[in-house]
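Sanity check

After download, print the first record. It should look like this:
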Amino acid sequence: MATNLYFRRQALETLLGGKSVLDAPKLSVRDLEWANRFVESYGYHWEDSEDQNLIYSYYRQAAAFLQTLFPEEEGKFPPEIFDANQLGDVRKLLVYASSRNPDLKNIQKWSCAMLKVMHVTFHLNSDLYAAFESDIRSQILGPIKERIYQDQVQNRVYLNSLTSDERVRIHKLEIKPKKNQTSAVIKLLAKRRLVAMNILDRVGVRIVTRNTFDIFQSIRFLTNESLVCYPHAIVNESANSVYPTNLFLEAMDGLRSKNMMASEKEINEVLEKKLVDHQERAEYKDKDNVFTDANYKFVKFISRKLIRVKTEREGKKETIKFFYPFEVQIMDYPTYINNMRGPLSHEEYKKRQTRAARLRLLHLPDQGVSETID
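Expected structure tokens:
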């Protein structure tokens, strides 16, 4: 018997070479029989009506997503795959995406793009967040909201302790809005090293302080109030481009050693002078993100919280426990205002992400986007 020398290139490049299937220009599915095996391997059963309905639902979502993402292609999308009636069996997308026939080049290209969007959608809707969104958000954000005190008389906002007299006056606190499906799909397509289970900022808050000192006071408040447990931090996700931690701690040590009863104004003046005098020793913590403008300044960290979900299985009550990440961004008000303008704005950030997603879907090179997006 002859030795089988055929190895599926994509399987090896993905499993061993670290090349995402989202970067594959083609599949290798010969016919509907192979397509059915692919679907089974993916985790779904074509004969199961519930699975089949879900697959068709994600197909329709993907078609609508592509038509929105590529408005300039209106009237040019191949009806063989964008018209559900003409397509018929959605498994044909796998066969079309594998075609080497030059006459089917356009159909092959858009079939690949369609499957990439469907792949991302499957994973987004099959993780812990999709199953327990309400519990996750309430258990992470609820305790934070409880500690926001608004003084209506003086029109001030505070982080206010429930157990002590500690409070930090801030400018505002924003709850990160729920990321819609389109935004999440674009993010996963744009960032080449990101997978659904590693989206760490679905839940989060942004604290806008009055000054630099209050940034660090806010962090102290969050840890003192057990809103953030620093051993649960995902340290490689931390960023600090506002004020170097080492110089801040040195400045605080210096003030304490002099037993100074300094005002916040004096403290911020000390911090400014410290930075000017010791700029060469400043230890910032940068986290590369090709879509974030280099001038965007903020403090950011990701921590995790133990989530408890009460459930019942086979008549027995039990509690499911798992850690879930959340993001905290902190910046002072002048920085916040500057970040909201021009190329630093969130709108510009999303435009850069969308451009990268478009290029990746059609397997086009991009000279402006690094392959090492983190």
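If your output differs, re-run the checksum step. Summary of this record's structure: Confidence is low (pLDDT under 50) at residues 367-374.
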